Amino acid sequence: MSATTLPWEQPNTRVEGYVRQVRRKFVRHRLAIWGLAVTILLILTALFAPWLTPYPPNDVTSAFGAKPSAAHWLGTDQVGRDVLSRLLYGTRVSLFIGFTTVAIYVTFGTFVGMAAGYYGGWLDMAVMRMTDIFLSFPYMLVVLVIVSMLGSQISTIMIVLALFKWPTIAMLVRGSVLAAKELDYIKAGVALGFRTPRILLRHMLPTIIGPIIVSATFGVAGTILSEAGLSFLGMGVKSPQASLGNMLHDAQSLTVLTEQQWLWMPAGCMILIAVLAVNFVGDGLRDALDAKA
Amino acid sequence: MTAQEAMSKPLLQIENLKTYYPVRRGLFGRASGFVKAVDDVSLTLYEGETLGLVGESGCGKSSIGRSVVRLERPHAGRILFEGEDITSVSQRELRPVRLRLQMIFQDPYASLNPRMRIFDTLAEPMIAHQLIKRGDVQGEVDRLLQLVGLPRAAAYRYPHEFSGGQKQRIGIARALSLKPRLIVCDEPVSALDVSIQAQILGLLQDLQDELKLTCLFIAHGIGAVKQVSSRVAVMYLGQIVEIAPSELLFRKPRHPYTKLLLGAYHPPDPLFRGMERLIIQGDVPDPSDPPSGCRFHTRCPYAQERCRMEEPSLTKDPHAVACHYPLA
Questions:
Q1: CATH class for the domain made up of B2-100+183-196+213-321
Q2: A33-78 pLDDT, tens per residue?
Q3: CA A57, CA A80: separation in Å to the nearest integer?
Q4: Which among B114, B165, B201 is the nearest to A9, CB-wise?
Q5: Is residue A29, in this structure, part of any structural domain at all?
Q6: Which residues in chain A have their CB less than 8 angstroms from residue B96's CB?
Q7: Contact: A192, B161; criterion CB under 8 Å
Q8: Which one of B98, B160, B202 has the shortest CB-CB distance to A192?
């Protein structure tokens, strides 16, 4: 019997591909779909804010602390700026900080975690002790101190937030790499003589990307909250630039809190909506990417 | 057989190979002991031959294979490939050697990247080693698929669309893409259905004749080894207990363990009809604390006092055996 002339065995019934499978599971997750829709809407609003807003966000109009009206749908703040315009620009800033910070620390954390997990040894040891150190700080406190020292430019805020978030990604990635390292097709890559960057980027990264994406999604929500917290405490985005957090800052005054709800309600609701929406997307992704579910 | 051996050059020499796995316990993960997966094994593979390596699960046969392709780092001993010592060279320096030294994995379901089309899986090794020009990739992939009996259309599918046997063909094609001289086959058929096993073994044999390959064929199934190997080595607890030309070993096993192993195998072969059946007793002892003397004495029906005390060494014959009281 000559094996090379054997008839072609019939392929088994077509199993659906990974991407399609993930999409099917995600679509089944109703909250996640709503979350995704809202997130996309928010991103579009943020991108097109200059065309959507009725007034420039920092322009002072003639009405000070005016209630919502036809001219100012969400009223004006104490210096007479249109709250709706500021809300949209604030969303823009908050989302920008959220996504950019996550992009920075996920990239860095993934890189460091992969190196630590794949090479092991002293590198692994050093990286893991470093993550332990970062994670043992009272995070918000240290961020406050650093921002007050370096000033609160948006870039500073993003870098400082990223500095304290990368260790979680690095630990997550390291763990995944340790498991994936034992997979036969990764070992096959070594046996075939591939260079390490090829193994890590072409074979390892696609294998472990699922949990990274999920964590990044939750990270966006977390970072929006962190920025809001910082700005609320006056250490985040500086006035006159609007952000969701510093719009809440006004609510520190008791009269505003009790009698001028239009000044903080919109920003508060926007934070709530944005964080919930992004978290629902994360939930959906987690269920969809988990092969066991 | 012996004449042929004498004529051909050794392609792979394994000398006193020891591959240990540390057993880590306690807070600081100190190695408290070692699982001696491969303990002082010497083997020589001659060009063009297929050496079968058999033994129970956990006897260290896969560890030998993985050490040869340096997926494990040997503890001691030497591995010479084409006369070059590759025991402790770095992975970087090993890259050119890997062109001539390839491996087929046990589990075809796990050894192919599920997110890559077959085309990329087969093309990647050649591209990574810059063996071919961009324009020739298509032709080479077609040739490889044809070589292992798969249609050209297979290139544009993903691994999950194939059966186990087909996947193993792809695994074989991938190993062949670098045009190796030596292939370590680590139980290439044990994850497959019996009906498919014969096809894959037949394919391996055909390819071997066609491409003049040398194979280290690792298996726990006697049947598979019998079909493809010209010589067979039997392993027990990290050591080789018997090596002989295939036909001789199956007809007249000299080590009690080999005989028991053959007894556990029920071949559809009249040659074995008259053979007395012995059943192996007990389990394989703990390889981190192997028995004294002959390692098989705890389970050997013929064990005597001397077997408990003194470790037998492998004889130098073409039919080598490590036993104080070999069977006639």
A1: alpha beta
A2: 999 999 999 999 999 988 988 888 888 887 787 788 888 888 888 8
A3: 10
A4: B165
A5: no
A6: 193
A7: no
A8: B98
